[in-house]
């Protein structure tokens, strides 16, 4: 992570660290007592704590059921969590998640959202979803930079040996076998959402291995294949190969493939990434949303649950029947009173990793270094880098010339105490890391980049490490506890839009049903 110094001849862009209220979040560690003035209390049936995708999805589901006696409380000034986006010229850009694979036909609730957004054109003869071509990632989708050249795709075929080819083909056979696998109840080994996966020991035992161990046990020693699998783990989980559960590693490759021999589901994407979904959900529920509201206390009692918020140095309280807790699970002991006295689940088992995301605002796009270089793609990966490379925001709009925005992703999984180091670095040092890395492929980046803003995600994603996913802790955390219903992508152990959406809708269904019965 040590930043390289920029020579005096190189222009350095303007920029800032933007986003998360780190200091505010850490106030929760103090476990203070809060007294709300009597005239600052409000009675409401349901409060949703957290305005990420899970919280927004819960609110969306409640509103769809014409249940509007709820409030959504969000800590930040902007809604959406790691799916939020920014606005700019010529297009918007993501600050985190940037695509959604087309869901299988069985994922009815998610398909209803896509229908509502007018993204769906119909169904094919097999009943599978047909999404408008303009919303599917356009070609070229991916390229990788290796030893001074850009090559097509993510797996590096250029210069591979016969043994590399053999191992890659065998790996694909293993993936096909798992895609086709079914348990005695007809359930797949790996599918989205995780709740529909088989819990057969044949599959869940994979969670006791790292993905690196699984590769070695199956004779996969190819450096290229190892890099490819390591990239997959860093991309979806923010973890290295050896840090990732083998179950999670195989889930990445199998869960979005309908059957063996076919490609993974195509990506739905927009310049602003999953911010398009966030903005749609927010537009449907905005009258019930309260931003910049730090929930400092959730206190279950005989009548329901009391929620206390801090905003602009003012305390406000809500007397509620039910709570949907749509914040990361590790925060539960800090904000829920009495949690540790009668803990319903081991919150410390939900461990997260740190990232930083940088948006580089360019006055023009990089030029090819060689005539035979594969052209600028949507996703541009640097083979010999701890980063994930960058996504080109203007790609989906077909704007192939002139100014653009590149979104650069850097998981801190290569660093000991990565979260601490991330927040100790200045903007200049993090910008230095980003520009030095990108400059290996694009030496002219210093002249092209006018501005570089950075968002630090201290608790970006749940970490599907070995012995976590099928340890039983997730299942316990999904159970309601003292009128509190938990809803977050943490509960799947996999940080995906589909998983957050699933848990938000599930929790909303639970609270809506019980609250309606009381009415």
Number of separate domains: 3
As residue ranges, the low-confidence spans are none
Rounded to an integer in angstroms, the radius of gyration calculated over CA atoms is 23 Å
Give the count of helical stretches.
15
What is the CATH architecture annotation of the largest domain? 3-Layer(bba) Sandwich
Tally of DSSP β-strands: 21
Class based on secondary structure composition and strand pairing:
alpha/beta
CATH superfamily of the largest domain: FAD/NAD(P)-binding domain
Describe this structure in words.
With about 525 residues, the chain is an alpha/beta fold. The chain has helices at about 20-25, 55-65, 110-115, 160-180, 200-205, 210-215, 225-235, 245-255, 275-285, 330-335, 420-425, 425-440, 445-450, 475, 495-519; strands at about 15-20, 40-50, 70-75, 85, 95, 100, 120-125, 130, 140-145, 150, 265-270, 290, 295-300, 305-310, 315-325, 350-360, 380, 390, 405-410, 450-460, 485. Strand 2 (about 40-50), helix 2 and strand 3 (about 70-75) form a beta-alpha-beta unit. The mean pLDDT is about 95.
Summarize the structure.
This protein is an alpha/beta fold. The chain has helices at 22-26, 53-64, 108-116, 162-180, 201-204, 211-217, 223-237, 246-254, 275-285, 332-335, 418-424, 427-439, 445-448, 473-477, 497-518, and strands at 17-18, 41-49, 70-73, 85-86, 93-94, 100-101, 120-123, 129-131, 142-146, 149-152, 267-268, 289-290, 294-300, 305-311, 314-325, 352-362, 379-382, 390-392, 404-411, 449-462, 484-486.
């Amino acid at each position: 992570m040590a930043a390289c110094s920029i020579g005096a001849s190189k222009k350095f862009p303007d920029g800032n660290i933007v986003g998360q209220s780190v200091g505010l979040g850490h106030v929760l560690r103090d476990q203070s007592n809060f007294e709300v003035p009597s005239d600052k209390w409000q009675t409401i049936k349901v409060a949703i704590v957290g305005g990420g995708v899970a919280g927004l999805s819960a609110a969306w589901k409640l509103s769809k059921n014409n249940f509007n006696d709820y409030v959504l409380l969000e800590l930040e000034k902007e809604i959406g969590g790691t799916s939020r986006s920014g606005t700019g010229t010529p297009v918007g850009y993501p600050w985190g998640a940037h695509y959604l694979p087309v869901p299988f036909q069985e994922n009815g609730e998610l398909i209803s959202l896509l229908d509502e957004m007018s993204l769906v054109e119909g169904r094919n003869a097999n009943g599978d979803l047909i999404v408008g071509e303009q919303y599917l990632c356009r070609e070229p989708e991916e390229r990788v930079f290796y030893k001074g050249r850009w090559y097509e795709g993510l797996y590096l075929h250029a210069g591979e040996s016969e043994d590399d080819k053999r191992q890659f083909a065998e790996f694909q056979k293993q993936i096909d076998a798992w895609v086709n696998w079914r348990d005695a109840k007809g359930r797949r080994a790996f599918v989205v959402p995780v709740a529909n996966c088989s819990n057969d020991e044949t599959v869940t035992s994979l969670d006791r291995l790292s993905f690196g161990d699984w590769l070695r046990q199956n004779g996969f020693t190819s450096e290229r294949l190892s890099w490819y699998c390591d990239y997959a783990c860093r991309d979806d989980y923010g973890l290295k190969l050896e840090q990732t559960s083998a179950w999670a590693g195989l889930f990445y490759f199998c869960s979005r493939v309908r059957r063996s021999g076919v490609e993974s589901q195509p990506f739905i994407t927009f310049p602003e990434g999953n911010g398009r979904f966030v903005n749609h959900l927010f537009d449907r529920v905005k009258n019930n949303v309260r931003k910049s509201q730090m929930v400092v206390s959730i206190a279950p009692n005989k009548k329901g649950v009391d929620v206390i918020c801090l905003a602009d140095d003012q305390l406000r309280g809500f007397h509620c029947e039910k709570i949907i807790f749509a914040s990361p699970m590790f925060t539960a002991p800090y904000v829920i009173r009495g949690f540790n006295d009668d803990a319903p689940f081991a919150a410390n088992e939900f461990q997260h990793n740190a990232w930083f995301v940088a948006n580089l605002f360019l006055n023009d796009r990089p030029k090819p270094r060689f005539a035979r270089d594969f052209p600028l793609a949507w996703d541009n990966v640097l083979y010999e880098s701890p980063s994930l490379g960058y996504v080109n925001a203007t790609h989906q709009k077909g704007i192939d010339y002139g100014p653009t925005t590149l979104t650069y992703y850097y998981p801190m999984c290569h660093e000991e105490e990565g979260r601490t180091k991330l927040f100790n670095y200045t903007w200049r040092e993090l910008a230095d890391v980003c520009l030095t890395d990108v400059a290996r492929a694009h030496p002219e980046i210093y002249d092209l980049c006018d501005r570089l803003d950075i968002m630090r995600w201290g608790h970006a994603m749940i970490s599907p490490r070995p012995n976590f996913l099928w340890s039983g802790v997730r299942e316990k955390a999904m159970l309601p506890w003292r009128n509190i219903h938990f809803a977050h992508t943490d509960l799947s152990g996999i940080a995906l839009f589909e998983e957050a959406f699933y848990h938000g809708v599930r929790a909303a269904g639970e609270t809506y049903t019980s609250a309606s019965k009381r009415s």
